[in-house]
Structure prediction request, 306 residues.
Amino acid sequence: MHHRMTLGSAWLRGLAGAVLLAGAAPLAAQNVAEACQGCHADYYDSYKAHRHGTKSDARTPANNGECVACHGAGALEHAQKGGGRGVGGVINMGSKTVPAATKNAACLSCHQGGNRIGWQMSAHAGNDVSCTSCHKIHVPNDPVRDRFTQTETCFGCHKEQRVQVNRPSHHPVVEGKMSCSSCHNVHGDNPKQLVRASVVETCYSCHMEKRGPFVHAHPPVQEDCGICHQPHGTTISNLLKARAPFLCQECHSHTSHPSQAGQLTTGRATSPGLLGSVARGCLNCHTNIHGSNSTQNSATAGRFRR
Prediction:
């Protein structure tokens, strides 16, 4: 009798264990996002509408661990224990207490490469900017990927540039014809996080007529367009940092009229040396200021005249 009871108890214990295993297995194997849906329905719905939730794309988290792919193994433990604040060690991408490096590691596990290959050496990474500081994952369309809304994300930190692009002379950013990412690779490690290796190469991608080579080259043009231009916007035409002749006189201060101050003459005069800069701009005569191929008046052809 005692022997039969012992066998019966063992069988019951085995049955109970089997039931527990059978109950736990589906949670471990099922789509974790569906388990999360019970408490996080809004995030679940927006995730499914986002590119990350596209099951037809083998690269997405929808086919590589769902919520666990971004929120860490703690997301599975969180779901298995029934949820609750602080349960399971979920990586909260929106939390300020989670280090930026931890958040970015989740994104870089898939998005490391291409124009993001230099992220770790970029200015944004060096200032502890996380991917989720700019990108919104649980929305159908990420605002920072839309040229009409991208600038608002960038201007959240770059407030000086917000003012500049609204000045009278500016690139067509506020009009939506271009965006910050037209010139900047925010994931890269180029100077000023530009899309090309230098300022001039970036500008030449649109302003090809300024590239040359020219017979008579203007050194600032080849060195850095930013010497004369403020690309985000100014109150002066052609995005110039200052009006001529003052801009030109920052470099051209030798004898003759380049060094003359903008002031009225003291008497009647017709000589350029006496008229100074009254009612004149350097570009009225030096029209080919970016470079010239002129062979006329060879003695002064290098002065970029018309």
